[in-house]
Design a protein that fits this description.
Elements: E1 17-24, E2 43-51, E3 57-61, E4 80-82, E5 85-87, E6 123-124, E7 142-145, E8 151-153, E9 179-181, E10 188-190, E11 253-259, E12 265-267, E13 271-278, E14 281-295
Antiparallel strand pairs: 1-2, 1-11, 3-4, 3-14, 4-5, 6-7, 7-8, 9-10, 11-14, 12-14, 13-14
Length: 296
């Protein structure tokens, strides 16, 4: 008698596919009139993110916040995201208010610098950075210097790697430095905070990694824009003058690094990006827009 022979089917598990990411939000805009620098966009990086083939993953690349006008605060940067990971836009730089009371810096991925206070020796705090998950650093405080020469002084915006500088004597606060990443295959520093602006003192330098310098001057002197694009740097605070314009924050970026054997990426409509090869890895850099990416 010949019995039936049954063979159990053999199932191969789907391969585990992973990537590394760097997600940076848009930097905050600097404030107007002796104002604080904008905070850097939130900075999040990780390795070993597991993804599935033939599945859409949503991406948004946040733009930078505009600089403040007419004694106004800057504008908060726009969030960037990849899948469930979200980096918060950089906090705005605080401005002087028309009544001279001053404004604190805005909260964000990194906090913006505080504006000057109308009462000598009284400070206006910098904005706080996102703490969970940690994305950057706090901004520095702004203050009026009532000696000679009389001056308005803004605090520095926080950077991805360091806190924004506080006002010191006749010097506005420097922007906090950014953080370096080698996700593209070479080390690049991004996420610098914007420097504080001043009426007659020393301007605050921009933080390394794209932070714009503050301005120094009495004639409605504009703050310096953060640069380059996709650095997530904060804009510099404006110099003196009620209609002085703060510097714009820089746009953010989303960078994905994965093995060439992981599959071929499709960058969906609405997103701008490029893919390069680094040895056995592919690196996709997404520089603008909102849309989906997938691998096959």
């Amino acid at each position: 008698m010949i019995g039936a022979i049954s063979a159990a089917a053999t199932f191969m598990p789907a391969p585990v596919v992973t990537l590394d990411y760097l997600v940076i939000a848009g930097g905050g805009g600097g404030g107007s009139n002796g104002a604080g620098g904008g905070g850097a966009g939130g900075y999040l990086t990780s390795t070993g993110f597991t993804f599935a083939l033939s599945t859409n993953y949503a991406v948004t690349v946040g733009g930078g916040g505009a600089g403040g006008t007419s004694n106004g605060n800057g504008i908060v940067g726009v969030n960037s995201s990849f899948s469930s990971v979200t980096s918060n836009g950089g906090g705005y730089g605080g401005a002087s208010a028309p009544n001279g009371t001053g404004n604190v810096g805005g909260a964000g991925g990194s906090g913006g610098g505080g504006g000057y206070e109308g009462t000598a020796g009284v400070s206006k705090a910098g904005g706080t950075a996102t703490a969970s998950p940690a994305q950057g650093n706090n901004g520095g405080f702004g203050q009026q210097y009532n000696g000679s020469p009389y001056s308005f002084l803004g605090g520095g915006g926080g950077g991805a790697g360091a806190v924004g500088g506080d006002v010191g004597g006749l010097s506005a606060g420097a922007g906090g430095n950014g953080s370096a990443s080698s996700i593209t295959g070479s080390s690049v520093t991004r996420g610098g905070g914007g420097g504080g602006g001043t009426y007659a003192g020393t301007l605050g330098a921009g933080g390394t990694g794209g932070g714009g310098a503050g301005a120094q001057g009495t004639g409605n002197t504009p703050g310096n824009n953060a640069s380059p694009a996709n650095s997530g740097g904060g804009g510099g605070g404006a110099g003196g003058g009620a209609i002085a314009v703060g510097g714009n924050g820089a746009s953010g970026v989303v960078i994905l690094r994965y093995l060439t054997t992981a599959g071929t990426i499709t960058i969906g409509a609405g997103l701008t990006g490029t893919t390069a090869t680094d040895g056995s890895y592919k690196v996709t850099t997404l520089t603008a827009g909102t849309g989906n990416v997938s691998w096959a």
